[in-house]
Amino acid sequence: MPKKVLLIIAHEGFQPMEYSAPKKVLADAGVTVVTASDASGIATSAHTGERVMVDLTLLEVRAVDYDGIFFIGGQGALDHLDNEDSYRVAREAAASGKLWGAICVSPRILANAGVLKNKIATGWDGDNELAGILAAAGATYQRESVVQDGQLITGSGPAAAEEFGKTILAVLTMVLA
Q1: Cα separation, 125 vs 143, whole angstroms
Q2: I need a surface site. Which of 6, 43, 149, 176 has the fewest CB within 10 A?
Q3: Where are the alpha helices (DSSP H) in 7-66?
Q4: Predicted confidence band of residue 67 (pLDDT cuts 50, 70, 90)
Q5: What is the span of the domain harbouring residue 42?
């Protein structure tokens, strides 16, 4: 059975490199990549205006349907994904025993969802607040491009997007081997 990964993007303002690089790495390896968002239709990226068709909304997501669930960053992530719908998905993903995580600003959503207790994570820290946010959530900040802690994989931002995708693929392959 083919592996299936869910990438969650903001309907407006997702980071295009953080979405497209992991998607390409995974799809090129034969992984089915599904895109979810806070709204249906076509999502638009930050800066470039890249348009992506959304496969399903957060309300339709069931963690058990995927081998991995990952929140993508971008300026719209906190505006559109930092909410109870995302928290439910994050909690289900964390409890599922499958792969889960986030890149860039989106580890803050995981922190707000309460799923990072006793975890090590990375993410965007351009405002120098990530260490405090993670500490308040019971997690430890590690200033690396990509950090894996068990089933949790986090990435620091666009420059880490390809490595983030490769780490997801490597762990996904290992877990399902």
Answers
A1: 9
A2: 176
A3: 16-28
A4: very high
A5: 4-176
